[in-house]
Structure formats: C-alpha cells, structure tokens
C-alpha cells in the first residue's frame, strides 16, 4: 500500500491547523454550557452564545486599522485556505488565550471578499 508523503512545512501547517481547530472546538463547547439561572453574573458570562450564532456557525471580528466588523460564518469555512491563513495569523498575533469572539487580523472589506469567493 502506498504511503502519503507530507513535507515538513506542510506537516507543520497541518499541526498548527489541528491546534487551531481544537481550540475553536473547545471554546465552542464551553459556550454551550448552560448558564446558572441562580446567578445573574453567570448568565452574562462571555461563554454564552449570542442568539444570532446558529448551530454550526461561529463569530469572528475582522479588524485591521478600520472599524471592527463582526461576522457569523458557517463552520465549513474552516476548510477555506484564506481563512485558515487568517487563523494562523490570529494565533501568532493574539495567541490562543484570547477570550471572546475570535479576532482576525484582516480588513472587514477584504474578509467580505473572501467570504463571497472573489
């Protein structure tokens, strides 16, 4: 049986992508935990998912010298090469311990172009 050969650079990118996806999945799982009704502070916790973020979607903020803009996009976009590149840049710039909405180092207008497929 033939084995698939992966270059070191590509393997490194795959490992980074896996780490990013695991962090995103972890944050999405934390967001699904029900709020404690007895404690109002818990109900306003940043791990609650806003109503406009439907199942199978996640929120990102695109910001780069412009006014930040929030987007809610399907999880399927995690396979898009341009978005993967932005996620790697975000990990390098902001780290993995960033709380709240995922922030992408990209102009909102450019991100809209990526989403539209242009």
Can you walk me through this structure?
Belongs to the ARG7 family. It holds the Pfam family Auxin_inducible. With 118 residues, the protein is of the alpha+beta class. It has four helices and three strands; from the N terminus they run ααββαβα. It has one domain. Strand 1 (57-63) and strand 2 form a beta hairpin. The model is unreliable at 32-45 (pLDDT under 50).
- How many strands appear in the DSSP assignment? 3
Shape: globular
SSE pattern, N- to C-terminal: HHEEHEH
Strand content: 5-15%
- The percent range for helix content is 40-55%
Q: What do the pLDDT scores average to?
A: 76
Alpha carbon gyration radius: 16 Å
Strand order of the largest sheet: 2-1-3
Task: Please summarize the sheet with the most strands.
Answer: 3 strands, mixed
**What is the distance, rounded to the nearest whole angstrom, between the alpha carbons of the first and last residues?**
40 Å
Assign the structural class, choosing from mainly alpha, mainly beta, alpha/beta, alpha+beta, or little secondary structure: alpha+beta
Count of helices? 4
Unreliable spans: 32-45
Kindly give the count of domains.
1
